[in-house]
Amino acid sequence: MGIIALYIVYLLCIPALFLLIVRLFCALFSPQISASIRKHPVVHGIWACLALLGALQITGIVMNAGYWPSASAERRTQRQKVLERIQSVGGWPALQKDCDTLATQYLDTAFVWYRGNTNRLLPTLAALKPWYVEFYSPTVLRDFKDEPQVAVIRIKIFGMHSTGGHSTPYYGLEIVSGAGAETYRPRPKPAASGNSYSTNNPVTDRIYEIY
Fold first, then answer.
1. 0.85 exceeded by pTM
2. Where in the sequence is the domain holding 122, given as residue range(s)?
């Protein structure tokens, strides 16, 4: 019986919140309602407690639904962290130089690094604290007509999928190296939240942020 009573109280909390808001608003214009609130402080105190629980319920629903923090707020934080990390090792030109070196080293092959791998990254790539770094040379991709036939280093820095909760949105970089860079434009990648991206923004003429 106690559990049923608690469940009923739980269901009443959110309606109590909205009704209290309406009542307090009406009290601003109605001396009768204002007087009633002063006359029954205990009743309205209990009502306020239910309303507070209702506010907490709504906050929990919003948080669990993945609406907060907002994508734009997270994007600003992600961008700022990446900027701080890259500036600490020489800025965007240093990143371009390291990516050009990587593309030259793996001219006819591929380079794939995931967090936890023991092989070392070049300094600017390591400074970004990435989840993964991928490079497939145009030689490897020449038989895949849907893939870009230019050298592109892809770096995932942020992004994690959460089933039923808040997913950290994807944020990464694509760095173009060598011939044909001027023809390249990043393409969207549909996937689960935290792993998908649809927008690119040029940082330099050969570096794009991806989100």
1. no
2. 71-210
